[in-house]
Design goal:
- By secondary structure, this protein is mainly alpha-helical.
- It has one domain.
- The chain is about 45% helix and about 10% strand.
- It contains eight helices and two strands, in the order ααααββαααα.
- Helix 3 packs across helix 4 and helix 4 packs antiparallel against helix 5.
- The protein is elongated.
Length: about 200
Amino acid sequence: MGGRRPKPLAIHQLNGNPRHFSKAELNGADNPQPDLIEPEMPKGMPKAARREWRRIVPLLKEINVLSKVDGLALAAYCRAHSLVEQAAKEIETGGLTFRVMYEDEDSGKMVPGEIKANPAVGIYMNAMKVMKSFLIEFGLTPASRSKLKVSKSSEADPMANYLNRKPGTPPIPFAAPEPVDPSEMSADSDEEKDKES
């Protein structure tokens, strides 16, 4: 059956839940929520793919969309990235097009024929499409990123809490400072400086 593929619930949450799923639907037991743990890099990936893996994993962890079950999707993206790099080098070396050479039947000499596209161009374009589809899945294209609402750290700033407290709330109790041992005071204390002046 055709139609748009459903987005993972983590992406719906980062987008601010525009479909208005209930909390039960977003966090229910019927929705598998894998641990947000960095997946293991698959063995045998090309050097360029491994390099891209190391570059993009911290970005995905930062927005909390990378889980331990995303390894295959991430590896496919990184392999596509590797193909893009390879194809780009081929295009840089051989150009976008090349001229086909034929052997002339009468003279036996090679003569120029029609101009054709470098096959690396097609490889480049297809790999770019694959890359883009995975970037969208992970919320890393400009359009998909603009919809993400990354949650702030759960650790509250004590000063912000104090300044934003409700009127009548008792002040935050602070621990008394530890007494200073006089033997630990430096000779360059303020009292010594006053005596010298």
